């Protein structure tokens, strides 16, 4: 016969069972009412644009104007390369352009000379025709007198020879006219329908000047945007090649968070859902508020340098993660700055399911852009116009000075016309 249970023990077991039951019900209620509406991960890190500063031309480093941790403004010089080589190349290109302009001017001037040659050869043809006519009349006169013995046979032969020579001279003069016309047409083909500044040879030489001018401007490397200098590797006196990384600029006002969620957590995450984040560097006393901006197009392992070979026989399933991009509040970033690579805890409120899991529209504008390089082209065009204007002729320079309100291209067109007239 079983002994009756100790009342104290029975009461303790009932109490423990009740506590466990209440805890289970409370946990179930919390999971259903609260926890199921949030997805969280501690696999989240701050990301940002890391803008590499690389030279577009080769050269020797002459000066360094920024170092690690420095804040730089857009357009501020960072590195200066020795400009001696590019200056020499620019001088050579400008000399070549000046010589080309003068050669093209010679083509226009040659048109007038060749036209005069055509007129001269046509005059020779008229003279030759007159000589043929006179020689023919002399021959006819002598032939009419040869029957009664008034003209000797020798004199008649001389008249026939003179007619033949006159005809040969006429043929030569006509051939000279054809040759002179062909030379004129050939020279006009090189100048027809264009002016000195728009001539293809001048444009080709001008392109070389622009190229050399841009190279001279690229000896100074400016900061493309506001940000902080990081990972400076360039040293004074170093010979750098185009594309060599010298330093990086990180705009810390444009950071975001990549939160890597597990596959099972993605089913309820949508674009536009609010996110609460905590950075390890500040702790839980500072909260960031962001928004889901997009979900990655693939898992991290899909883009790994050595992707997993899941078709092998020795296979173990590993839960994959997909990066979810979270946009942060710029005001909060200003108050509590973040650095690229810092750890974050992210919690997404998934109650609002009205958003989409994939973006369905392209961005209306550039993600990021800079205009610090735009002024170089204007300076190159001005340099080309200066060289052309200095070599189109003295009269053309006067016309350019008088037409200061006329656009530069129109002024040079007038200058080339004046040069052609001279």
Question: Can I get a quick summary?
Answer:
With 422 residues, the chain is an alpha+beta fold. 45% of the residues lie in helices and 18% in strands.
What can you tell me about this protein's structure?
- The chain has a domain at 97-195.
- It is elongated.
- Residues 396-422 have low confidence and may be disordered.
- Helix 2 (84-146) packs antiparallel against helix 4 and helix 7 runs antiparallel to helix 8.
- It has 8 helices and 14 strands.
- It is 45% helix and 18% strand.
- It has helices at residues 7-33, 84-146, 153-189, 200-217, 330-335, 375-389, 394-402, 408-421, and strands spanning 38-47, 51-53, 59-64, 71-72, 77-81, 220-222, 227-230, 239-240, 247-250, 256-262, 274-279, 287-295, 321-328, 343-349.
- The chain has 422 residues and is α+β, with helices and mostly antiparallel strands.
